[in-house]
Amino acid sequence: MKKNPFRSALIAAVILPGLILPTSVSAQSTAKGFSLGSVTGIWQQQVVAPPKLENSPRIESLIRNGVLELSLSDALALALENNLDIAVQRYIPEFSRTDLLRTRSGQSPRGFAGGSTPGGLTAGALGAGISGSGAGSGVGSAGGITGGGGAVQVGSSGNFDPTLSVGFSFNRVTSPLNTSVVSGLYDVTSNALAFSTSYAQLFPTGTSYSLSLSGQRQSSTQQNLLYNPSAVTRFALSVNQPLLNGFGRLPNERYIMVAHNNTSVAVNVFRMQLITTVVAVGNAYWDLAALRENVRVAEQSLAVASQLLEDNRIRLDVGTMSPLDVTSAESEVASRTRDLTLAETNLRMQEATLKNMLVRKIEPKLDSVRIFLSDAMPTPADIDIPDEKEALATALGNRPELQQAEINLKNQEISVEFTKNALLPAFAVFGLYAGSGLQGSSSNESIDDTNLLNSFGQTFRGEYPEFAGGVSFNVSLRNRTAQADSLRSQLERNQQLINLQRSNNSIAVEVQKAIIGLIQGKAQVEAAHKAASLAAEIWEGEKIKLDAGASTSYQVILRERDYVAARQAEVAAASSYARAIIEMDRARGLTLERNSIKYSEALDGNISTAPATPFSGNGTKGER
What we know:
Blueprint: H1 7-27, H2 58-61, E1 63-64, E2 67-70, H3 72-82, H4 84-89, H5 92-103, E3 163-176, E4 187-202, E5 208-220, E6 230-242, H6 249-318, H7 323-358, H8 364-367, E7 370-373, H9 388-398, H10 400-421, E8 426-440, H11 449-461, E9 464-474, H12 480-547, H13 553-588, H14 591-594, H15 599-604
Helix pairs in contact: 3-6, 5-6, 6-7, 6-10, 6-13, 9-12, 10-12, 12-13
């Protein structure tokens, strides 16, 4: 049985890339967290798990008899597990790893919120990558009628991700001719079956190479051919190395460097979201505590006003008080009823606000749940106020936005170096080796496998070799684009240096304000507590005077109002002091550390150990 004459060509086309591809795939770097899996896995979609949109079980465990018993530690744990703002930003580190994976293939990063890629890295082509196109493939001049030779140019080829191309084609053409001198006929019919395969890759130093293997079986009705049908094969290896523009690791790995830096930026972006949420939940918690105290004050005030109204009515009945005093007491009860309604509705609104921070999904059964806060407002202490110099040094070393700005400055320095390299002329050396083969039959019989293999043997033995080498030089005579990009990168670097200094100054001011806020808050709490005590004494004294007939009901109402205002001021001062402690931690960049929040658990969304806040019972003043 006659063998398929082209089977060996097919085998050769498949074996060559098969020997190269597994090594290249296994050596391909991937970003942490994303695995290419098997060889075939690189062409399959990696499925990302859908987001969790149900509330964590923790919230159910905290609800007892329709009441959500909540410490600040519990509130923070719920926020870390369920808060949607954190859930959205949780994808930022994943984005940074996909960018790193993408840049390791030679492409530019797509970026993410907070992670910048300097515009100078694209060299005027937004979204460009690192790649080139090498010499074309084909069968060369083998099998022709004139031979070859002439100018050769081998350019940069491939990408960091190796590229493999395989092609097969069949062609039948009938052509009328104007002479029969060459072919012996006035019309020629040719049949061609061809294949080609090529492999190209770029290395971080700028070196690129390409391998190509091609073959063609052709038969024709021409009468003056040596072989008809014939088999023509060719193998070529080409190499290109830039020596000026594009030489070295930085011009070629610039996107990888930036993407690697941006993985740290992503960490800081997520940390900032954690800090923002923790601060917001803490403030909301103490605001709710203050509103709860305001409700208690309003309830006490209404009870006292109601008792005064009853007493005045009794005095009116016995003739010791005028009807106007009873009317004044009734007006005061109406005012206190209004204040209580306002305090209760404000409390319900704040409960709804806090619940929204602690859940992924609003459920009807949570609407009716009331919140009971188990943590008491902090008592001011001198140890709460840190030394200004130590606080500033801590802030400059821990604030994530400052670290992010420093990393962005490093990225800009990469842009400055790249645009400096881009000023150089394009000068490269290249080389080419190729081997060709020609076999066939002098009759119209089909080519057998032996002839085809002999053609490949001629190709790989170099019986008909081609050697080429040379240099290429390309220079812009005015170079204005590269000069503009270089100047722009340096200007942007200077701008970022100024922004970095501005951030340092802003942080210093924030630390100073936070310390002043603690000092001020401590004084306000102490003063408000004293004022509330004195107002209570004055109010009690006025009631005694009323019982003795030395005062009026109106004076008692005025003293009661003074006491209510003093108690409300005391509650507001205590709440402001708790917020000042939270702001002091934020200003120093210690929010996560002071609340014992582990970054890894927060990123995963599974909190195994509840945060230990500075306000919790297991904390001490010394820990502040």
